[in-house]
Predict the 3D structure of the following.
Amino acid sequence: MLSRRVTLCVATAVLLFAAVPSFAHDNFRVIGTITRLEKSTIDVKNKDAKITSIKMDRQTEVTRDKQKVPPAELKVGQSVVVDAYGDSEADLLALEIRIVPPIRATK
């Protein structure tokens, strides 16, 4: 009985400590146009001409019209909405990249 309680306490502690790093990151949304595209990085320029570099990995999902598409569908000049997380805008990892219709400039 004591062994079972110790195992349960250890398992609970491991789960709690494993979850802590995921809370340290903030969520970001970047909306703009792809200006540079590499195997594991995408640069997106927003309406204020600020360029944000965002890392991609195997878990990054790329979609168009709510349908999953391969990352090879991404092209320089496309409008995108990127949902990412990281400690700051300088350290982002894309969770989802949505290819959207061209974003029109507003006056």
